[in-house]
Specification:
By secondary structure, this protein is mainly alpha-helical. Among the domains are: 16-91, Helicase, Ruva Protein, domain 3 (Orthogonal Bundle), CATH 1.10.8; 97-127. Helices cover 56% and strands 0% of the residues. The chain is built from six helices and no strands. It has helices spanning 2-16, 28-40, 57-71, 76-87, 102-128, 137-147. The longest helix is centred in the C-terminal third of the chain and has 27 residues, at 102-128. The protein is elongated, with a radius of gyration of 40 Å. The chain starts with a helix and ends in a 19-residue tail after the last helix.
C-alpha cells in the first residue's frame, strides 16, 4: 500500500515541476509572423529580452498565445493590442508616446539638460570668482613676520654669569 502511495506521489511531483513547452507549428507563415511579433514584445520576466529570445516559461506561454491568435485569424495590431491591454505599455519595446509614457521619453533628455546646466553654472562661477593674488613663499613669510613682530626687548640675564646686561 505504501509503495502504491509513493508511486502516485512521485507521478504528481513530476507534473508539478513541469514547464510550458513550445507548441511546434509546421506553418512557415505563422512562424514568421510569430517571430516578427515576438521581437517587438518584451519578456516580462527577463525585461531585457524579447519574448523571441527568452526561454522563460512566461515567454514560451506568450509565444503559444500569439500562435493561437494567429491561428484564429487576428491581425498583428489586434495581437499587439491584446498584449498591451493585458500587460500594459511596458510589454512593448517601443512604447507609444502619450501622457502615461511621456516621462519615459522626455526624462533622459531632461536629466541631460539639467546636468549640462549645472555644469555650465559651476564653470561660470569658477571663472567669475576673484582669484587670490599670486604670491611667492618669501612674500608670505615676510607678511607673517610683520604680523607677529616681537615686543620690545627686555632686560635679559646672561646665562653664564647670571648678570643682567644693559
Amino acid at each position: 500500500m505504501r509503495a502504491l502511495a509513493a508511486a502516485i506521489l512521485l507521478a504528481f511531483a513530476g507534473a508539478a515541476f513541469g514547464q510550458a513547452s513550445e507548441v511546434a507549428r509546421p506553418d512557415a507563415q505563422t512562424e514568421s509572423r510569430l517571430k516578427a511579433l515576438a521581437e517587438e514584445l518584451r519578456c516580462l520576466v527577463c525585461q531585457n529580452q524579447t519574448i523571441a529570445d527568452s526561454d522563460a516559461p512566461l515567454a514560451v506561454d506568450l509565444r503559444n498565445q500569439i500562435r493561437g491568435q494567429i491561428g484564429e485569424g487576428r491581425s498583428d495590431d489586434q495581437i499587439r493590442g491584446y498584449m498591451v491591454e493585458r500587460y500594459g505599455d511596458f510589454v512593448l519595446y517601443k512604447p507609444p508616446f502619450h501622457a502615461g509614457t511621456a516621462l519615459l521619453w522626455i526624462g533622459p533628455f531632461a536629466l541631460l539638460a539639467i546636468g549640462a546646466g549645472v555644469f555650465l553654472l559651476l564653470i561660470r562661477r569658477q571663472r567669475n570668482a576673484p582669484s587670490a593674488p599670486a604670491s611667492t613663499p618669501n612674500a608670505q613669510l615676510a607678511a607673517l613676520l610683520e604680523e607677529e613682530s616681537p615686543s620690545p626687548p627686555s632686560k635679559t640675564r646672561s646665562r653664564k654669569h647670571g648678570r643682567s646686561e644693559s
